[in-house]
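Subject: design request, 210 residues
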């Protein structure tokens, strides 16, 4: 099985996607072998001998033993690749964080000037999952959103506006502007599939009415 090199800090989101694809393939194979066992009527632990201790003649013993053996091997592969995915996500997050701190290309913070008053925020980042696209982009809990792609204070109506932008922007960078600690921050967020749920890995809630 091909996995990411744990000594290589240059883990990319493509590496993580490849691991997740391999995990899905393993799960499909395990399901296929379970279906074989169910078709034979024995499952994973059903007996293969009759009441007198002789091999049952009503089932395909070779097929069942092969399926059970392959399931056992694949479950070990599945456990290993889940560990690889977790490790790759941690290294990807650490690498992206170090990169942002070095050149500030992911997040550009600007002092808010009196002449440059931002419109009021329409949503707030309430939760972020480590290793998610939102975390990698640099969003933080408490960020107040004033622009999310094409959604802004002037046209925001409900969270479905943001959800629609995300669904139509999978794999494409979105410009997100937030207010953070009295400063404006521009974040480039790319919605994409990862090991968790959704395309961003964060929870955004509407701002309470003034």
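Subject: RE: design request

Done. Sequence follows.
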């Amino acid at each position: 099985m091909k996995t990411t090199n744990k000594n290589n800090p240059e883990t990319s989101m493509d590496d993580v996607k490849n691991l997740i694809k391999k995990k899905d393939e393993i799960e499909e194979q395990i399901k296929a072998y379970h279906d074989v066992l169910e078709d034979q009527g024995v499952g994973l632990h059903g007996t293969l001998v009759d009441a007198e201790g002789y091999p049952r003649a009503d089932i395909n013993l070779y097929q069942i033993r092969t399926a059970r053996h392959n399931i056992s091997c694949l479950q070990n592969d599945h456990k290993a690749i889940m560990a690889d995915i977790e490790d790759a996500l941690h290294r990807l997050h650490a690498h992206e964080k170090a990169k942002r701190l070095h050149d500030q290309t992911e997040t550009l913070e600007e002092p808010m000037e009196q002449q440059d008053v931002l419109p009021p925020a329409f949503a707030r980042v309430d939760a972020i999952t480590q290793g998610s696209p939102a975390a990698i982009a640099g969003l933080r809990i408490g960020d107040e959103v004033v622009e999310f792609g094409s959604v802004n204070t002037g046209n925001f109506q409900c969270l479905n506006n943001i959800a629609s932008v995300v669904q139509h922007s999978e794999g494409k960078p979105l410009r997100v502007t937030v207010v953070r600690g009295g400063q404006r921050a521009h974040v480039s967020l790319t919605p994409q599939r990862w090991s968790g749920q959704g395309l961003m890995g964060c929870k955004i809630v509407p701002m309470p009415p003034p």
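The chain has a mean pLDDT of 84.
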